[in-house]
Specification:
The protein is α+β, with helices and mostly antiparallel strands. It contains 6 helices and 9 strands. It folds into 2 domains: 17-121, 2-Layer Sandwich (Alpha-Beta Plaits), CATH 3.30.70.860; 155-231, UreE, C-terminal domain (Alpha-Beta Plaits, 2-Layer Sandwich). The strands form 2 sheets. A 5-stranded antiparallel β-sheet has the order 2-3-1-4-5. A 4-stranded antiparallel β-sheet has the order 7-8-6-9, with helices on one face.
Length: 231
């Protein structure tokens, strides 16, 4: 089988510890809307977080709208997650007022989660409404991922595999390489490059069918966390 697989290596990136999000006790109805509050440095972010907690921003929005807000914190950013645009805009305004009272300068941005792009988008970006529109949007994304994979030589998606034994991992890695796939192996673990999401999911399903019980396979973006580093 001849395949044009872009990656000669599969990138493995681990999220820096400082960027891990810490969620509050509140859980949003869903996370489709996000307010990003950007501050000049981690110290200001911590100060802003304390101010928002003291003024009970989450409870404030819940009392007004009956909607929950979830809070995440990065290095120099605070994220407010909401289930609706109204709740997100309300949370944004409350947060802006609170920080202004404490003379804390910050930039605010509102985004909406795009379920097909799998990215945060400007609220003005139109969402597909019909099944035909969703399929067309999905295909456009697949084409873009494939084009980027081929242009950069780096797989945009991957199948991550854990096998029961080192011998099985070596055998599977050899077979996949013979098929022209980009494979990285360490002990019982494999990462196999794919050009786009559909290809990664099809590859993962095929590996599940072709391997013994006890093998675990996941299709994921190439920048997802994996349990080992490249060598």
């Amino acid at each position: 089988m001849n395949r044009e697989i872009a990656a000669t290596s599969v990138p493995i990136r681990v999220e820096p510890a400082g960027r891990t999000l810490r969620y509050s006790h509140s859980v949003a109805d869903n996370n489709d809307w996000r307010v990003t509050i950007s501050l000049p440095g981690p110290a200001n972010a911590e100060r802003a977080q304390r101010s928002l907690a003291e003024h009970e921003v989450e409870e404030n929005v819940h009392r007004r709208l009956g909607r929950n807000i979830a809070v995440g914190v990065g290095d120099s950013q605070i994220f407010l997650y909401a289930g609706t645009e109204i709740a997100a805009r309300q949370a944004k305004q409350v947060a802006r007022d609170v920080l202004a009272q404490h003379d804390i300068q910050a930039d605010f941005a509102l985004h909406r989660w795009h379920p097909i792009e799998q990215e945060w988008e400007n609220p003005d970006v139109a969402m597909p409404q019909t099944e035909a529109e969703r399929q067309a949007e999905h295909q456009r994304l697949e084409d873009e991922e494939t084009a980027e994979s081929l242009a950069t030589g780096i797989a945009q998606w991957q199948a991550r595999v854990e096998l029961p034994s080192r011998h099985e991992a070596v055998t599977l890695a050899r077979r996949l390489r013979n098929e022209g796939r980009a494979v990285m192996r360490r002990w019982r673990f494999l990462v196999v490059g794919a050009n786009n999401e559909d290809e990664a999911r099809e590859l993962a399903e095929q590996i599940r069918k072709d391997t013994a019980a006890g093998t675990t396979v996941h299709a994921e973006r190439a920048d997802a966390f994996v349990p080992f580093m490249p060598f």
